[in-house]
Q: What sequence folds into this?
């Protein structure tokens, strides 16, 4: 009886060990996932260059198409834009007539998981003020890209700000001085009546 009990004990100890060895062997046979970070970085750099060219055509809808549905745009001196409609409104202002805007990525880094990346670089913008004089700006940007379910990269967060120092607010126009003719007249008429 003891031999039979020992045989059952031995086979129950061997079974888990065999299963573990089979799992390890099958995992070893599978190739490691391919590292596509360099190719993804080139793809994002190319997409960003295409995006800048699209913006140069002032096509607001095509420009906004580079954003994912859940994207956020963080423009300077303005509220956060968290949906396509508010992002479109920001771009409609940026791509107004008599403006030019371009940017270029200087650094793209893709996460090890291959589903997130960031791109940063510089931008240049020119517009006209109310008197038709050119106003130029230059600054930096940071974009967060996310690989979508279809394998395409889209921007999920976008922030930019100027390198130029903040201009002090223009002084408020001087208020016209209140005229005190009526009170002077009253004072003059009182003086006249006391003299009589």
A:
């Amino acid at each position: 009886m003891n031999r039979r009990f020992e045989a059952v004990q031995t086979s129950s100890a061997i079974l888990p060990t065999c299963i573990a060895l089979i799992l390890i062997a099958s995992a070893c046979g599978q190739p490691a996932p391919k590292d596509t970070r360099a190719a993804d970085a080139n793809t994002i750099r190319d997409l960003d260059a295409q995006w800048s060219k699209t913006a140069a055509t002032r096509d607001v809808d095509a420009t906004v198409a580079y954003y994912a549905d859940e994207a956020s745009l963080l423009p300077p001196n303005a509220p956060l834009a968290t949906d396509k409609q508010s992002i479109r409104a920001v771009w409609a202002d940026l791509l107004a007539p008599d403006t030019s805007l371009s940017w270029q990525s200087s650094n793209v880094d893709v996460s090890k998981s291959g589903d997130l990346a960031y791109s940063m670089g510089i931008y240049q913008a020119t517009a006209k003020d109310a008197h038709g004089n050119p106003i130029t700006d230059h600054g930096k940007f940071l974009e967060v890209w996310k690989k979508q379910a279809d394998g395409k990269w889209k921007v999920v967060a976008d922030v930019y700000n100027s390198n130029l120092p903040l201009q002090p607010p223009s002084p408020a126009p001087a208020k016209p001085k209140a005229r005190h003719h009526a009170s002077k007249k009253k004072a003059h008429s009182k003086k006249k009546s006391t003299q009589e």
Q: What stands out?
A: The beta strands are 67-74, 100-110, 116-128, 134-147, 153-162.
